[in-house]
Amino acid sequence: MAAERGIPLRELVTRMLAENLPPRANERKPWMKSFGKLETLRRETARISQAIESEFEQIEPEDRK
């Protein structure tokens, strides 16, 4: 197939993979190129959510009555 098209085998394989593989997460959403760096905030958001949950799990003395 590569010979028929007059291209190196490496280029054929590269093209075939590019056409048949699903796009990476940041390529599916064009806006992720600009805002994808915010993905690191997931850990911070998880930490904050955990702190909030642990705070609400505590029973206040006035609520025990």
The pLDDT mean sits at 77
Q: Considering DSSP H and I runs of 4 or more, what fraction of the residues is helical?
A: 55-70%
Summarize the helix and strand pattern as letters. Answer: HHHHH
Number of helices: 5
What's the shape?
A: rod-shaped
Q: Over the alpha carbons, how many angstroms does the gyration radius reach?
A: 25 Å
Which spans of ≥5 residues are poorly predicted at pLDDT below 50? none
- Kindly name the structural category: mainly alpha
Largest sheet: none
User: How far is the first residue's CA from the last residue's CA?
Assistant: 80 Å
Number of strands: 0
> Beta-strand level of the residues, as a percent range?
under 5%
What does this entry show, briefly?
It is built from five helices and no strands. With 65 residues, it is mainly α.
How does this structure look, described?
It is rod-shaped and about 85 Å long. It has helices spanning 2-5, 9-20, 25-28, 32-35, 41-57. With 65 residues, it is an all-alpha fold. The model has no long low-confidence stretch (mean pLDDT 77). It has a domain at 25-59. The protein is built from 5 helices and no strands.
